[in-house]
Amino acid sequence: MLSVYVPLSEDMLLSLADEIVENIKWLGVDNILLLTKNTKGKVFYPSGIAPSRSTGLFEAIIDKAGDEGIEVNAWLCLFEEDMHDVNPIVKEHPDILLVNRYGKSNWEQPTWSDMDPKYSTFWVCPSSQVYLDYLGRIIEELVRYKLRGIHMDYVRYPEAVEGRYYCYCHRCLRKFREQYGYKFPTREVIHIRYYVSILTENVTNAVKALSDKARAHGLHSSAYVFTDYVTAIEACYQDWPAFSRYLDYLIPTLYEVSPSHARRLVSRAVDVTPEGLPIIPAVYANRMVRRAVKGTERWTTKRGADYIAELAKASLEAGAKGIALFNYATMFNQSLPMSLRKEDLVELRKKLAEIGLAQL
User: Per residue in 41-61, pLDDT tens?
Assistant: First the structure.
């Protein structure tokens, strides 16, 4: 499978649909992950439930991709919400938001605001049944489109800036007290470690509920997850080896990693997930260097067609069933400073076809 993430924004014109699908067809992609709900809680189709920023482009891409035999999955950013243009579901149910270790809700201290105000955002606790029901109704609205499935992103808690920072809402604290008999505040390290189980279970339960909803309507479900499951659990309570059994395929990130480390990571993902579950790693398709340190074994600062093809080949050799390119904008919008060059795209198309990924 060769997938590509396609971001949308409210300033993108309906007329772009032909160009987007033609470019994707030319590259040989057979699966689109189309942004449907963004990190501001806005959706890109006409909705009777969620705040909508529909321009018709969402529907047009689905229709045109279907005509070309390209599958489309609705890419949903699950738990982030806009703190300025506040979603009615948040206004009506303010207790769905995270509470930090100081007892302050996101209303008082938004997520990441203590790191830098520009990163401030609202984040819903995955333990909220009210919000899960809301997401379920969004999935039910999406059934009317010719989609292959739903693709879950931000299926986790936010990364903690200073230790284990979230969540201490009344639901999480009650569950901890009822199931372990402990309560906060505490200085007992073992108590804090047990709390990790509560938070990872919240995320896993959310994945199961939404996957069940999708499958009940004949849709596949998939998720975009942190690269290394150890890091995923420690950093954001995302136990994807556990919740992968509810999915039809899994997309772990391989951003900036070396091909040798990619082989190791994909092998581990295959080992800890259900037998036969397709692993489709997400690969950077741009020229950006964000975290990679030059000269190290697990990172690489190499970019471009050769790097993507090497990463894809290593992933396939380790048991992956394809790759997901992240993302369309940095491949086909040449005005972006970190976009791949046109010559890179031509070479990439050729190399992906050589290893059997691009459907030309």
Answer: 999 999 999 999 999 999 999
Model's pTM, two decimal places?
0.96
Helix (H) or strand (E) holding 283: strand 282-284
> For the chain, what's the residue count?
360
Nearest residue to 359 via CA among 67, 20, 68, 2: 2
Give the pairing type, strands 282-284 and 71-77. Answer: unpaired
DSSP class of 255: T
Q: In a 3-state reduction of DSSP, which class is residue 201?
A: helix
Pick the CATH number of 2-244 from 3.30.365.10, 3.40.50.970, 3.20.20.80, 2.40.30.170: 3.20.20.80
Collapsed DSSP state (helix, strand, coil) of residue 33? strand
| Segment 287-294 long-range contacts (CB within 8 Å, at least 24 positions apart) | 287/338, 287/339, 287/340, 288/330, 288/338, 289/256, 290/255, 290/256, 291/255, 291/256, 292/256
> DSSP letter at 153?
E
Spatial distance between the Cα atoms of 284 and 325, rounded to a whole number of angstroms: 6
For residue 88, the surrounding DSSP H or E stretch is helix 88-92
Confidence at residue 101, expressed as pLDDT on a 0 to 100 scale? 85
Encoded tokens for 322: 């394809």
Rounded Cα gap, residues 5 and 7, in angstroms? 6
Tokens standing for residue 174 = 């009650």
Q: Which two tokens stand for residue 49?
A: 């439930």
In terms of Cβ atoms closer than 10 Å to its own Cβ (0-12, 13-18, 19+), residue 277 is middle
Report the chain's C-alpha Rg in angstroms.
Answer: 20
Strands 122-123 and 80-81: antiparallel
| Four-point Cα dihedral 94, 95, 101, 106, nearest 10 | -10
